Amino acid sequence: MEKDFVPTQNLVYPLEGTVGWKAPSNIALVKYWGKKPHQIPANPSISFTLDASATRTFLKFRRMDEAKEAFSFDFRFEGKAKDSFKPKIATFLGRIETYLPFLRHYHLEIESSNSFPHSSGIASSASGMAALALCLLELERLANPEMTLEDFKQKASFLARLGSGSACRSIGGSLIQWGSTPGLSGSSDLYGIPYPYEVHPNFNNFHDTILLVHKGQKTVSSSVGHGLMKGHPFADNRFQQAHENLKKLRPIFKEGDLESFIAIVESEALTLHAMMMTSQPYFILMLPNTLEIINRIWQFRKETGTAICFTLDAGANVHVLYPESEKTKCIQFIQNELVAYCENGHYICDRIGKGAQRISTSL
Ligand code: DP6
């Protein structure tokens, strides 16, 4: 329950200091699209945690003599003051204040940078909000060093969700499930959990090459898209389908059945975009090159039998997924046939990762 995340002890918080965290992005296999109030997802989702695409955040904190009415913080992104991000951060701080009641007593200097190129069209809210949540929670941990690692990660995921839903899947583990799921003990709408069942080695070191078809801003934000699932004519069926796909994935992960994995992952990606095309107002985020890439992948898979597939987030970029055993063939195919469809030939070679890491700030 939410109230379990409110600190109950009387803690003595530090006067000042600096903490740092690096949090990865993630790519959903079963998509979160549609939400209820307070960042509760309309359906459960599951994602691969990424490795190379990440946000590094440092938080410098200094206790003030008196609590301020408004949150006192500065935000710098890639070395420059970025005031346009401040309202989003202020909203986030407001949402998590009940769970980190010391926030108004500090002046915070937040300094963030992304490993992936700025405005590459890659969702930075997941890694960004996860890294910030981890830094803020680290401040509580300094006052309460007895907090277990498990409790720390669970609360970090809980807080990150309040910043951006998908951010709760960017904390710990390589395959993360978020959303209450009947029969999956420990699952919750409030935070992500490491997938608790067996996963076949076929999924170890899985690759995600992100093809940057369009590097600019999306025409419709995810928040607007989520909102359009309210009253959407296909919403109930879609939410049910997500549950079914998660159920189907269980034996697929266990047995390493790549063919069935591909069928679910690609269908999820296209369903996500189908929801956008059938909402009111309707919109399309895929671009002609998105479709060119998808068709090329299908053709290559048909001709060679390679276990390669695609997924999409809420944009035009294509995530190309393939197992370690197919790496050489796939990279060659991507370079020869797909990179031509990327904006300025840009793409990111990523793979499944292990989750967020604390950055040492002792030097
Ligand atoms: C298509 O997590 O960005 O990437 O909770 O409003 O911040 P907010 O939305 P966000 O939505 C992500 C949508 C998605 C699918 C997914 O990651 O599951």
Describe it for me?
The protein is an alpha+beta fold. The chain has 2 domains: 2-197, Ribosomal Protein S5, domain 2 (2-Layer Sandwich), CATH 3.30.230; 205-351, Alpha-Beta Plaits, CATH 3.30.70. It contains 8 helices and 14 strands. It has helices spanning 86-96, 125-143, 149-163, 222-227, 235-255, 258-277, 288-304, 327-338; strands spanning 16-30, 35-36, 40-41, 45-63, 72-77, 80-81, 106-114, 175-178, 192-194, 207-211, 309-312, 318-322, 347-351, 357-359. The strands form 3 sheets. Strands 1, 4, 5, 6, 7, 8, 9 and 14 form an 8-stranded mixed β-sheet that branches. Strands 11-12-10-13 form a 4-stranded antiparallel β-sheet. The two termini are 39 Å apart. 44% of the residues are buried. The mean pLDDT is 95.
Please give the structural blueprint.
Layout (H helix, E strand, L loop, with lengths): L15 E15 L4 E2 L3 E2 L3 E19 L8 E6 L2 E2 L4 H11 L9 E9 L10 H19 L5 H15 L11 E4 L13 E3 L12 E5 L10 H6 L7 H21 L2 H20 L10 H17 L4 E4 L5 E5 L4 H12 L8 E5 L5 E3 L4
Parallel strand pairs: 5-7
Antiparallel strand pairs: 1-4, 1-14, 2-3, 4-7, 4-8, 5-6, 8-9, 10-12, 10-13, 11-12
Bound molecules: ligand DP6.
In short:
With 363 residues, the protein is of the alpha+beta class.
Mean pLDDT: 95
The arrangement of helices and strands along the chain is EEEEEEHEHHEEEHHHHEEHEE
Q: Bin the strand percentage.
A: 15-25%
Over the alpha carbons, how many angstroms does the gyration radius reach? 20 Å
Total tally of structural domains: 2
Structure summary, number of beta strands: 14
Tally of contiguous helical segments = 8
Give the termini distance in whole angstroms: 39 Å
* Anisotropy-based shape: globular
Report the helical percentage: 25-40%
